[in-house]
């Protein structure tokens, strides 16, 4: 049976002869299993085909996205290069601005000092104006007193003239009586006494006239001197005022920030902040108070603890044309108000408990 590809069995083998029917049954069973495997493989093939198509589509989509990303990458690299160049330019500009800022800080400090000098000069001029106004009121009072004295002197002169006229009338009457009464010639003592009294009264009147004239001339000279003094002081005040206005105009023109910062500086001074702290805050950067530091509330006339709070000079939300002092992003005086209100509420809750 070699020509059929058969070989003799191995001696001692456990192999057994398979019946033809059993063999066919095994073949049919294996055929069914193979058909099931083929069906399953067909399904898996279809699934793999679908997945392959999906993968191909995904691959194409990925390739498109990769190309788009490469284009974006090229664009971003261009932007990045441009941004690096702009960053270098901005760095140079920043260094220039920092240098200018340092220069402006020095100028600002100088302007603050100059502004302080101008403020002191203004206060001095205001004091001089007050003194001038006091002198003016004093001169007015003295002028009024002189006018009253002049009016009194006029009245006294009129009274003296009237008395002189009455005395003259009386003297004429007495002369007539002396002429008409010859007996009185021998009793001349009475006539002489009357004539002496009249002469004394005339001299008194003349003296009063001279005193009044002298006093009038003295008053006129004093009033003239006072007017000249007032005119000189007024001219000096006008000169000071023109100089002050000129200085303020230059500050407004060349350093407008000083005018904007003045309300904030006044806020700092009103809460009794130290000059060093005020100068440090003029750069408008936020800072934090040390613990235990206090500020004065002029409304309550008490000191409040501001330790750990952020302080900054920044534009006023209600008026962007000026800067004000802020604590924790609130106007200093609003912060004081809220702080006292919160303290009252805390104390009230503690009492209710």
Outline the structure in words.
By secondary structure, the protein is of the alpha+beta class. Helices cover 78% and strands 7% of the residues. The protein has six helices and six strands; from the N terminus they run αααααββββββα. A hairpin with a 7-residue loop joins β4 (310-315) and β5. The longest helix is centred in the N-terminal third of the chain and has 161 residues, at 20-180. It is rod-shaped. The model is unreliable at 182-188 (pLDDT under 50).
Terminal Cα separation, in Å? 116 Å
Secondary structure: helix percent:
over 70%
According to DSSP, the number of beta strands is 6
Strand order of the largest sheet: 1-4-5-6
What is the string of SSEs from the N terminus onward? HHHHHEEEEEEH
> Main beta sheet: strand number and arrangement?
4 strands, antiparallel
- Average per-residue pLDDT, rounded, comes to 78
Instruction: Estimate the global geometry from the Cα principal axes.
Output: rod-shaped
User: Into which percentage range does the β-strand content fall?
Assistant: 5-15%
């Amino acid at each position: 049976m070699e020509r059929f590809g058969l070989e003799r069995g191995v001696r001692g083998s456990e192999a057994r002869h398979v019946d033809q029917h059993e063999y066919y049954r095994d073949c049919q069973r294996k055929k069914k299993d193979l058909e099931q495997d083929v069906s399953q493989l067909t399904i898996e093939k279809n699934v793999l085909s679908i997945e392959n198509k999906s993968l191909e589509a995904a691959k194409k989509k990925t390739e498109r996205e990769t190309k788009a990303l490469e284009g974006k990458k090229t664009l971003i690299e261009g932007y990045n290069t441009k941004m690096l160049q702009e960053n270098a330019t901005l760095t140079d500009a920043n260094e220039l601005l920092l240098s200018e800022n340092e220069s402006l800080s020095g100028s600002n400090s100088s302007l603050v000092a100059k502004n302080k000098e101008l403020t002191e000069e203004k206060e001095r001029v205001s004091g001089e104006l007050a003194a001038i106004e006091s002198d003016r009121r004093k001169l007015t009072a003295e002028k009024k007193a002189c006018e009253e004295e002049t009016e009194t002197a006029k009245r006294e002169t009129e009274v003296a003239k009237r008395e002189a006229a009455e005395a003259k009338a009386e003297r004429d009457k007495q002369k007539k009586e002396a002429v008409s009464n010859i007996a009185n010639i021998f009793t001349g003592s009475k006539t002489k006494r009357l004539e002496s009294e009249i002469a004394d009264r005339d001299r008194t009147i003349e003296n009063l006239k001279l005193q009044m004239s002298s006093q009038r001339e003295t008053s006129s000279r004093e009033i003239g001197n006072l007017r000249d003094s007032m005119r000189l002081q007024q001219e000096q005040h006008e000169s000071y005022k023109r100089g002050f206005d000129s200085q303020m105009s230059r500050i407004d023109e060349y350093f407008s920030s000083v005018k904007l910062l003045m309300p904030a500086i006044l806020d700092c001074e009103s809460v009794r902040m130290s000059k060093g702290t005020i100068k440090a805050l003029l750069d408008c950067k936020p800072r934090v108070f040390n613990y235990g530091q206090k500020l004065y509330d002029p409304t309550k006339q008490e000191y409040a603890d501001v330790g750990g709070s952020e302080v900054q000079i920044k534009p006023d939300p209600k008026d962007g044309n000026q800067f004000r002092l802020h604590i924790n992003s609130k106007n200093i005086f609003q912060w004081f108000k809220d702080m006292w209100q919160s303290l009252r509420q805390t104390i009230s809750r503690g009492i209710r408990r």
